[in-house]
Queue: 2 jobs
Job 1
Amino acid sequence: MPRLLDKTGNTIEHDLWQILPEDYAGGLINANQLAPLELWLKQRSGESGQQAPGVWLNSDDEPEALVGHYPELSCIGIRFATFMDGRGFSVARLIRERYGYQGELRAFGYIIPDQLFFLARCGFDTFLLDTTPAQDFNPQPYFNDFTVTYQSCVDQPQPLFRRRS
Amino acid sequence: MYIYDHYDQTLLLQRVAQFRRQTESYLAGELADEEFLPLRLQNGLYIQRLAPMLRINIPYGMLSSAQLRKLAHITRVYDKGYAHFTTRQNIQLNWPQLEEVPDILAELAEVDMHGIQSSGNCIRNITSDEFAGIGKDEIEDPRPWCEIIRQWATLHPEFAFLPRKFKIAVSGAQSDRAAIQVHDIGLQLLKNKAGETGFQVLVGGGLGRTPMIGETIKQFLPPEHLLTYLEAILRVYNRYGRRDNKYKARIKILVKAWTAEVFARKVEEEWHHLKDGPATLTGQEIVRAKSFFTAPPYENIVCGDSSHATTEPVLAYSRWRERNVKTHKTPGYCAAFLSLKPTGVAPGDVTDRQLEAIADLADRYSFGEVRVTHQQNVVLADVKQSDLPELWLKAKEMGFATPNIGTLTDMICCPGGDFCSLANAKSIPIAEAIQRRFDDMDYLYDIGDISLNISGCMNACGHHHVGNIGILGVDKKGLEFYQIQLGGSSGNDAALGGVLGPSFFATEVPEIIEKILQVYVDHRVDGEQFIDTQRRIGMAPFKECIYAKAA
C-alpha cells in the first residue's frame, strides 16, 4: 500500500493529488492533478482556464524550466526512478532556495524510509512511499534521526558553525 | 588535533543508533539487500569475499594514542587481532561480524571515530599530507581546512547519493604528498601576491579504470568561499554526472566530456548563486578550526643534532636514521617513520599489540599523536632528535624499524584477491615475493628512491598508475597475470604510467622487476632517481631488455 507522509511522519489520509503518468494523453489537466513537466509546459492552462497548479519532474528535468511559474504552483512532485538517484535532492534545494517556491514539494517513486531525514532537509514536505516495509511500520523515528546538522540547507539555512555555542 | 564538542559527539551517537536500527531491520528481513547496501557502505561496511570488511575513517591521517588503543581493543574483541592501514589514510578490519558492527561503531564513537562515508557514492574521507604542520616547505597547515570540509561533508543531505564515490585531498606544502592531482577534487593552499591564503582548485583527477590527472578550474579561491565553491562543484556533478554506467560515473568523465573550461564555467554559474550565502565561512570559524592545530609544546633546543651519537650498531642505526627519519621545521625535532613494510607482512597490516606499541611510542616520543600515510606507514611527527636512538631500539623490538621508507620494498599494496571480492588477482603474495627477492639493503639503497605500487584489479586501490613501477593484477580466462607499468608518479610531477607490454605470471614478476632495475642502473647518470632515468630514456630500453627474444 502506498502511504503519504507529512514531514513529521504523520500519515496523510486524503491525498489531494493524482499523479498523471508520463504518457498521459487524457486531455486538459485539472486542479487536482500533478502533470509531468513536458505536458504541463504544453498546456499549463488547465481545464478551468486557470494555470494548472500541479506539476512533477523527473530527476533529470531542469527546475529552471519552471522559472516564472513557481508562485502560481501549489504542488510540485519530484520522482525518484530509483532511491540511488540523488539528483532529486539537488533539484529540491534549487526549487526551494533559488526559486523561492513555498508550496507542497513531494518526493515520490522509489524512495526508502532511511532517506526521509535527508529529503526533509532538502525541502520536501510530503513523501509518497510506494511500499511500506511492515504493517506496524512507524515512520516518525526516521524524521528524527539527527538533532545535529552541520550544513546550511532548506530546513536550517544557518550552518552549525554559525550556531555553535 | 580536532577535539569533538557536544555537537560532534551527539551526531556521532545518533549515527550509531541509526545504523543499529538499519542493521536490525536488515537482519529482520525488513530491508532488502540492495536497500541496506548503501546504508552499510556509508558506515564503512562491505560484504567481502570471506567476511564483512569495516573501513574506519582516519580524518586526514591523524590518530591519537587513545584512538590507537581503542582500535587495538576492537581488533582483539571483534576481529582476529589485526587491522590494515589503507591507501587513503583509513584503517580496515577484515573479519568483523555484521551483527556486531553497531557495537564496534559505538566503541569507536567513544574516541570520536567512525566509518561515516568511508565507502559508498558519497564524499569520502578527506586526505592530506602526513607532514602537515611540520614540513619545512609548508605554505599553510591544511588540517584546519580538512576539518572544515569534513564537517561540511558529514551527512550532507544533498550529496549522499552521488553518481559515484567522491574523494577530496588537500595539500598545504610546496611538495604535494597528498596526491591531489589524482583526486576528484584536489585543493592546493597557496598565497597570492598580497600574501593572502587561498586555494587552487583541481577537479577530475582519479585512478580506477580510466585514470586521469586533475585540471585546475580555479587558480585562487579566497578561503571564506571554500564551502560554497565545493558545494557548487558537487551540485553540478550530482546533477550532470553520468548515472547510466558506473564505470563512467566519476566526475573525471564529466569533466572530460564537457572539457575543464566548460565544467569550470558551469561551476562558476552555480557558485554565483551560492557565493556569500550562509555557508560562507566566518572568520570566527576559521580561527576556531585553526585553534585545534597549533604546535605542541616543543622544547627550545639550541644545540645541534646529537642523534648520530649512539653506541648502538652504527650501520643499522644510521641506515634507519637516513631512510626513516625526515626533517622538521622546528630545530631539534624530526619526523620518524614506523615502517609497516617488513618482509613477510602484508603492507599496511598491524597487530593489536603493534597498535598499542604505536600508542606507547606516540605518548613517549611524539605528544600522543601519529599520522597515517597513504603509503601505508605511520609517522611520529614530533620526535626530539636526541630521542632517536632510543626510539629506534623500541621500534626495532616491535618490528617497525625496517629501514626501507621510500625504497623499492616500501610498496603500496591493496588487500587484493586474498580478501577483496573485486580483485582479479592476489597482490599481497606479489609484494612478499618482491620483498624476498630484494632483501639486500645495500642494493635497495643503491637503487634509491622509487615507488612500486600494486593493485589486484583495475579499480586501482593500490594506485598502480602512479607508481614509478606499477603492477596490476589481471584475469585471463581464470588465471592471474600481472601487467607492469612504468613512469607513474603522484607528486607535483604527477603522471600516469605506461604499459610495458604483455603481462606476466606471478612467479615471473620479481625477475622482471630485477631486469627493470638493471636497465635503470645501466642508464642512470649523475645520481638520477629511477623516475628521472625512465622519463629520459623512455620505454624502449626496458621493452628491449624484457621482451627481447632469446638468441
Job 2
Amino acid sequence: MHSYLVAIPSLVRGLGTTFELAIAAMACAVALGFVLGTLRSMAPRALDLPLLGIVEFFRGIPLLVLMYFLFFGLPQLGLRTSNNAAAIAALAVYAGALASEIVRGAIVSIPLGQTEAAAALGLGRFAILRLVVIPQALRRMLPPFVALFALIVESSSLAALIDVTDLLQAARQNVERDPDVALPIYLTVLVAYFVVNYPISLASQRLEKRLT
Amino acid sequence: MPMLEMSGVRKAFGQNEVLKDINLSVERGDVCCIIGPSGSGKSTILRCINRLVPIDGGTIVIDGLSVTDPAVRDVDLRRRVGMVFQQFNLFPHMTARENVTLGPRKVLGLAQADADDRARALLAKVGLADKAESRPSQLSGGQQQRVAIARALAMGPKVMLFDEATSALDPEITGEVLAVMKQLALEHTTMICVTHEMGFAREVASNVVFMDAGVIVESNPPGAFFGAPQMERTKSFLSKVL
C-alpha cells in the first residue's frame, strides 16, 4: 500500500507528460492535415497521386516503428532529437495523415453548388475555399478531430518504449522498484486512460449528432 | 451591339453532345426565356455564358467581353453576369445580409458599411427588409431564392441568368419569386431565364427560345411563339405543357 501511494505523484507527472505529447502532436497533426487535406481537395489527379502516396504510407506503417526510426535511426544522420520530440514527431505525422483525410473528406462533402455560387460572384479559388467551403467544412471536421485526439492520447503510450516518461513509463518505473504493486498500478493506469478518453469520445459522438 | 451574342457554340460532355452549333443573340434590356425538355442543354447554355463550363467551339461575347478569350479574367466576366440557381445555393453559414455583401466586399472591394447599405436596399427590393439577419435555414424556399436574386444583383450585373429559378419551389410560392423577376424585367434588366413557367414566358419574354437535343429548334417573340409555332417539335412540346 505504501509504495502504491508513493507512486501516485509520479503517475500524475506521467499523465501530464502524456497530455503534453498528445496536445503537441494534435496541434501539429491539425496543421499538417489542413495543408495536405486542402491541397488534396484542390489538386488535379497528377498532383493528388503523390500526396495520396504520402498519406497512405504514413497510415500504413506501425507507429512504434516510426518512433524507433525517428529516435534511433535519424541520429545516425546527425539528426539527434530528444525522446519527447521524437515521440511527438512520430505521433504528429501518423495522426497528420489521418487528419488530412478528415480535412479532405469534409471539404469535398460540401455541395458543388456552394462553390459554383461563389465562383459566379467572381470569387477566386482560394477565396471560395477560405470564405465559403472551409467555414462549412469545419463543422464536419470537428467530431472526427475530437475522436482523433482520443486516438492520439491512447497511441502516445507507445512513447514509453523510447523512454519518454509518460503515464505508462512512470508506471513501469514504479513497478520495477516494487513488483508487488504491478496489479494496482497498471489497473490505475488503465482506468486513467479510460477516464481521460471516454469523455472525449462521448464528446465526439455528441458533436457528431449535433452538427450533422 | 447586342448584350449577348453566341455563335456556333458547341459543348460535349464526353461522347454526349449537349450543345450543337448554338446561335443566340440577346439585346440590351431584353428578356430571353429558354424552354424545352430536360436534358436539352438549356442549363448548359447559361453555365457556358459565365464560364462555369468551358465551351468546345464557337464564340460568346457578352457586353463586348469575349468569354473564350483567355486574356479576359474570370472575375471581370462574372461580375457582369449574375446567376440564380435552381437550388438557391445560399451560403448557409452566413445571414441573408452577409450572403448579399460577400461579393461586393470581396470582389468589388466595397467597404462593409457601403456593402451593407447596398444589401439593405436590395433586400428591401425583393421584399425581405426584415430578414437581413436571418440565416438561410430560417427562411422559406421562396425567401431564400429572393435573397439569392439580391445576392446576384448586388454585383451590379449587366445580365442576369436564371437557371430554373422556381423549379425547386412549391407551386403556391413560385409567384413571389416570379413577381421579383417580372419587376426586374420592367426595369429593363437584361435577363436570360431557363424556365418551365410558360405563363411567365408568355407575359414577360421579349423572345422565347425552344431547345431540344442540344439545338435551338425555334425562337420567336411570345405572341408568335405560342400563337403560331412553326416547327412540329415545338407544337408537340407545347401541346404537352400548356
